[in-house]
Design brief:
single chain, 318 residues, alpha+beta, Immunoglobulin-like, Glutaredoxin, nine-stranded antiparallel β-sheet, four-stranded mixed β-sheet, 7 helices, 18 strands, globular
Length: 318
């Protein structure tokens, strides 16, 4: 089973990196860094404004670093089958979204060590008008690195493969603290090392119960222990903090990906939402409205302030 995106491996490593074309090649001593980009968005489709994410890496004689902070310019083009010249598409400005627990205070694109800052650049409301292969060109002036220009290709489908905004949310009976004869690690993988399920308030509701009772829900699909990106634990912690601030607006749910990681057994709730054609894509965050329809979704990384702003638009629950 293929685990999520290539970038998830890249961003999780504290040394080394990867892109769709391999590691950034170290530049000769004294030369500028060699930049590479990896599209971090999954399940892109036509005729709907969506978030677009890209991660940027730099390699030189000092090793591999990340491009962090500030914003970068994006220009999209439709490649089709490659028989014609790329057709110009939309443009956008993408702003930095850092991994939870890392520094996000920088104001301009800068080369950073992964222990200090690592993340992706996010553009809002990008619409693709044709099915097929697209490319994105990212440009920026990077402090400590000079001019950046990288191009990466990615697919755009006719329809979303995973549950998407506007659709009815699957009425899933995910595992909770009330589930019988279930190993704690299947409820939250952190229980395999901690001995008990942490963040208990994230494991009291099922998605089905929230929909049945007309309660909005914010649902994080992630495996904190087994996530290849090393982001899932901090991301779930960020959802826990949101639950403390917005407990009157929604119920908050964490769905663990694996029932038994060693056996490769996925929890049914995670499979219902994220497993398609032999491929599992995670982590994802979903906001479901009181009417049971998906309001929004975020993949790979998200800005807690942005999610909090959407939670504030919901009316207080009775």
């Amino acid at each position: 089973m293929r685990r999520t995106l290539t970038l998830m491996l890249c961003l999780g490593l504290l040394a080394g990196a990867c892109t769709s074309g391999g590691d950034p090649d170290p530049s000769p001593s004294g030369a500028g860094p060699s930049f590479n980009g990896e599209v971090a968005s999954a399940d892109l489709y036509v005729d709907t404004p969506q978030r677009f994410l890209i991660g940027l890496l730099a390699g030189d004689a000092n090793g591999v670093r990340y491009v962090s902070y500030g914003s970068v310019k994006l220009a999209f083009a439709f490649l089709g089958d490659g028989s014609a010249a790329p057709a110009a598409g939309p443009t956008a400005t993408a702003t930095y979204v850092g991994a939870p627990g890392t520094n996000t205070d920088g104001t301009a694109p800068t080369l950073t060590q992964p222990a200090d800052a690592r993340g992706v650049y996010q553009a809002e409301d990008v619409t693709f008008d044709r099915v097929g292969t697209w490319q994105v060109t990212a440009t920026a002036d990077v402090e400590g690195g000079g001019d950046l220009k990288v191009t990466s290709a990615f697919p755009v489908a006719a329809e979303p493969a995973l549950p998407a905004p506007g659709q009815r949310a699957p009425k899933t009976d995910n595992l909770t603290l009330a589930s019988k004869d279930v190993p704690p690690g299947a409820i939250d993988s952190r229980a395999t090392t901690a001995g008990s399920v942490p963040d208990k308030d994230l494991h009291r509701w099922t998605i089905a119960d929230a929909i049945a009772q007309g309660r909005p829900s914010l649902v994080a699909f992630a495996t904190p222990v087994y996530c290849t990106s090393q982001f899932c634990g901090p991301v779930v912690d960020a959802v826990e903090k949101l639950s403390q601030r917005y407990a009157d607006r929604a119920v908050f749910i964490h769905v663990e990906i694996y029932h038994d990681f060693t056996a490769g057994e996925i929890n049914q709730a995670a499979a219902d939402w994220l497993y398609r054609n032999g491929d599992l894509q995670e982590p994802w965050l979903y906001l479901i409205g009181a009417d049971g329809r998906i309001v929004d979704r975020w993949g790979v990384l998200w800005n807690p302030d942005e999610v909090g702003a959407e939670l504030r638009t919901l009316p207080p629950m009775g």
